[in-house]
Design brief:
The chain is an alpha/beta fold and 255 residues long. Helix content is 25%, strand content 31%. Helix 2 packs parallel to helix 3 (102-110) and helix 6 crosses helix 7.
Amino acid sequence: MIPPPLPLARVSPTKGASDDAVCAGKALLLDDGECIGRARVPGGIELRLIRHDDEFSIVLEDNELMSTRVSASEIALATMTHARLGARTASEWLIGGYGMGFTLRAALAALDADACVTVAELVPEIIQWARGPMQAVTAGCLDDARVMLVDEDVATLINAAIDSYDAILLDVDNGPEGLTRAQNDYLYSPSGLEAASRALKHDGILAVWSAEPDAHFPAKLRDAGFDVAEVEVNDGHKDDADIHVLWFARKRAEA
C-alpha cells in the first residue's frame, strides 16, 4: 500500500521541547507556546500541536509545518481551482489531507450545495485536534453534509478512481520535495501523476501546493498529460511573508 500523505504548509524555525517530556503525555510550556498534543505520522516521525493564546501551530522537530497565522496559499489552492473549473453540476473534489482545514473551508464556501468533497486524512489525531482544541478554527466544516472524511491514504483513493473527480487538491508533505517522509514522493512521481490524470474527469484539475519552487515539476506534469499553470502566492504572514507555489494541472484532452 502506498504510504500515507500528510498536508504540510509553512516551514519556519520554532523552539523544540524534550522528547521525553512530550512522550510523558503532559502539556508542555514552551517559550513560544504550550504543547497540547502529539501524533505519529504512519511510517514517519512525531508531530506536536502547539497553542499560543488563540493561535495554533503543528510542528515537526524544529520546523513549523502549519499555523493558523498563515493560510492565504492554502485558501488559494481551493479558490483558484474553483475559478479555473467554473460552475459544474454535482462537482466531485478530492482533498489530500485535512491539515488545519483552510483548503476545505475555502472549497465549501465556493462550491454549490450539490457538490461532494472527499477529504483523505490518515493521521487520526489531526481530526481529533480539529474537533477538540481547534474547534473554533474548524468552524463545523467537517460536519458539512457535502464532506466525506476518509481515514485512508489519498494515493489509494487516486489509484482506485477512473474519471471520478473534477478536482484533486494535494497539500501533501511539503510539495514535490518532501519534508516528513520519502514515501510521499510517489504522489509527485510519473506513476503518481499518471494515476491522478486517470482519476480526473475530462478537463479536471490537479492542484498542487508547494512551499518552494521546483523547476522540474511542471515538466513532469506535462509528461503525465496535463496543461500546467504555475502561480506564486504570498502566504499572508503580516511580519515575515513567504512565497508559496501552486501548480494547476488541467487534464489534457485525449487526441
